[in-house]
Every structure is written in structure tokens, then in C-alpha cells.
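**Reference record**
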Amino acid sequence: MKKLTDATVATLNEILLGKDEQVRLALCCLLAQGHLLIEDIPGMGKTTLSHALAKVLGLSYQRIQFTNDLLPADVLGFSIYDKQAGSLVFHPGPIFAHVVLADEINRASPRTQSALLEAMEERQVSIEGQTRPLPAPFFVIATQNPLEQGGTWPLPESQLDRFLMRLRLGYPDPSAERALLEGEDRRELTSRMQAMISQADLGSLQQGVARVTTSPALLDYVQRLLEQSRRMPGLVYGLSPRAGLGLVRAARAWALMNGRHHVLPDDIQAVFPAVAEHRLEQGESGKSGDRVRQLLQSVSVIE
């Protein structure tokens, strides 16, 4: 399994240059059956990463451009009366895909943002009194611009908590940027990508994550991190039980990607910033990174 995930990461790194850690975390999030939030300024490769990930896994892909006039029906779908059938016929929206890119999600109104909540949590949508299952696997990658930019609505805490991880891509280093400038258009390269993992293999990997073991001492460490976050000054609340479950699940996926069937403290620490930062923001942009570092430094692995 490690060879398979390493080969997938290597292929993605040919598209998104100089972002090995972010690529690994994005794949880890998918294997852990979570959803991913990418926050950065426009033009940093957020859309490229989502499309390349879908291509390399051979999954169906839909991009939804969130705008302030987007309606929930534009995301979920709607029914139209068909004269020939003599009844209403449901037309599924773009949410019915394996990988859904919710592009610039915080430019849409809160009402439209909330249309994703059931889909992300239950892997189903309720439309016109009927529950419709979504494809499996189902992976939402949402991008958002920094709140300092105009025309954005902050995501509510209930929606932020649905995202297992948040990543920032950041500017490429000089060598990677030079390779981008000299190389082929990323869209052309992405269009020629071949699937590296079949849906059956992906399902096996996701099932394998659940079989990765966590020792009682490791879970004690996770609990200490959660408890310490709830005592931090300046925070209204700490990390939720859902965050704790997501942290363990992400650490299991990270361990599996590194060829192990048991979780080490290093796995927790590797995924902790991506899992915790967006949950500890709480209206004070830029401070969550310091809080995460403080948590990791103040909580001992062994007690």
C-alpha cells in the first residue's frame, strides 16, 4: 500500500510542484474519508490540486463556482415536470460526483453554504422529501479566499467542523516557481494524467485505515491534546469530540501511507495542524497556528 500511495503522491507532485507535504495531507484526508478545505489567495493551485487528485484516482469530478447568487438547488439539483413521463423528473446537481470542488465557498450566502452540510456529514442529500445517496467515495474539496478579501462570508463553525483538514498551499519556492514558468501548462498536464489507483483499490485503502491500531497510551496523548485545547485562554471552546475522532482517523491514514499498521505520536503531530487550526481560529485570523504549536509543545507524549 505504501508503494501505491507513494507513486500517487509522486504523480501529483509532477503537477503541483514543491508542495509534497500538502499533497500528502490531501491524499491522507481522502483516505480518512474526510473533507478538505484549502484557504489561500487566488492563483496558488487550489483548483489544480483538486482536479489532479480526481484524475489520478479515476474519480468523477465536478466544480461548483460559488457566487453570492448561487442557490441550494444549483448545488443539489431540482425536479422539472416532464410531459412525456407525466411526472416530475429529478435532475441531479453537481454534488452527485465522487470529487466535488466547492470553489470560493465563502463567496456564497450562508444559506447556500449550509446546503453542503448534510452531504458532507451523511453522504446523502434530502430533496423534496426524498433522501438520495451520494456516490462513494464522496470527497468535498472547498477553497476559500482569506476573509480580508472583499465579497466573502465567514464559514460558520458548524460547517468548518465538517472539514477534517484545512491546508494552505502558499507561494512556491524559487526553484519550483522557475520550473512552473519554464514548464508546460498545468491544465494540459492534468488532462493527460492516467489513473494510478482504481476505485476498488481506493476502497481497500480506506477500509485499511480503519484497521490501523491505536494503543491506549496513544489515545491518552490525543485526549490530553483535546483537554488542553479546552483550557487555552482566549478560546470560547476547544476541540470537539468530532475533531478528536477526525484526528485519530487522519493519523491512522498517515500511518498507513507510511507503511505501518499502528499509529505513532509522530503521526498525530504530522496531521494535527491541518486538523486543528481551522477549529481554533475563532475569529482571530493568524493566531490558530500559534495555538497549535503551543499545544504540541505543552502536551507531553508520555505522562
Summary: The domain at 212-303 is CATH 1.10.8.80 (Helicase, Ruva Protein; domain 3).
